Amino acid sequence: MLKIATSAMAAAATIALSITTPLGAHAQEAYPDRPVTMIVPFAAGGPTDALARVVAQGLTERLGQQVLVENLPGAGGTIGSGRASRAEPDGYTLLVGHAGTLAANVGLFKKLPYSTVEDFEPVGFMGDVPQILIVKKDFPAQTAGEFYEYVKAHKDELTAGTAGVGSAAHLGGMLLNSALGTDVELVGYKGAGPAMNDLVGGHIDFMIDVSTTALPQIKAGTVRPLAVLRAQRIAALPDVPTTAETGLENMEANIWNLLLVPKGTPQAVMDRLTSTLHEVTRDPAVQEKLAQLGVEPSGQDNLSGPQIEEFVQAETDRWRSVIEAAGVSAN
Q1: How far apart are CA 163 and CA 110, in angstroms?
Q2: Matching CATH topology for 32-128+255-326 and 131-228?
């Protein structure tokens, strides 16, 4: 009789424990119990991929499971982003999105295979990749102010390189045309590499490129930097002024990068991912690695989920107005 009573008491205690312990706590404690896939919707070796791999390594070390980068490039990042939107919302598929795929693409594509708002939930920011206005070595203007005046006077004679419609360089070029009231031809290449090669060779006049690919050429002296399209100067180029400092307001084209999961991911898993991501991005050793790539700490690192969604919506509206004014479409 005592044995039966003891068993009954034990069973009751187990039931009581399960009632008083939130189910999410069990999910968080168990997660992850297998490798996690981080989808990068761009080719390996590019700026987004380089950032993602540093963050993935940091997550791997802290989560105790491999975070594997899977590159799914194509169509301005829409192919990989679309695949991620259809993944199971269990925390085992992550997506790296940025200013282009999550905001500008809404204005560029008439129909996207995903919805930033309806299909994803933000985990947190990974880092900012600043854009830099660079010119060929023998460009006549020596300062950004001189450059602006020269472009206005010779807008029909100049060409700027981009990595194709919707690329960071293309967005920066459109923004510059808008700010200066010009329509300099934006020449699309199959990637930033070929565009940079033509800039180095003097076949095009200037380019607005992300820091991760521009810095090696700047350091080598093959191109000249005139301004950074960011609110603050960047650590890698402390002597290069911001566009605001050179007289152009509202010319920021910072490529922010955001980690996301499919909508419906359990909150406990979201909490684990968010806290772990913050540990990674705030680690001085990780920041040093990213600084070598030209990546700056995110200026939105402290935003909550709803605040991140508001930020992305504001960026979407901003880029939509620039794109509509330029009359550009990716379709």
Answers
A1: 20
A2: yes
| Domain residue ranges of the chain, discontinuous segments joined by + | 32-128+255-326, 131-228
Per-residue pLDDT tens for 85-123?
999 999 999 999 999 999 999 999 999 999 999 999 999
CATH of 32-128+255-326, one of 3.40.50.1980, 3.40.190.150, 3.90.280.10, 1.25.40.10: 3.40.190.150
Write down the pTM of the prediction.
Answer: 0.86
Angle at alpha carbon of residue 168, lines to 170 and 224, rounded to 5°: 85
* Type of residue found at 50: A
Tokens 């761009």 — which residue? 42
Write the DSSP assignment of 249-291 as a string of letters. Answer: TT----EEEEEEEETT--HHHHHHHHHHHHHHHT-HHHHHHHH
- Mention every residue, 6+ apart, whose C-beta is less than 8 A from residue 227: 132, 133, 144, 240, 241, 242, 243, 245, 246, 248
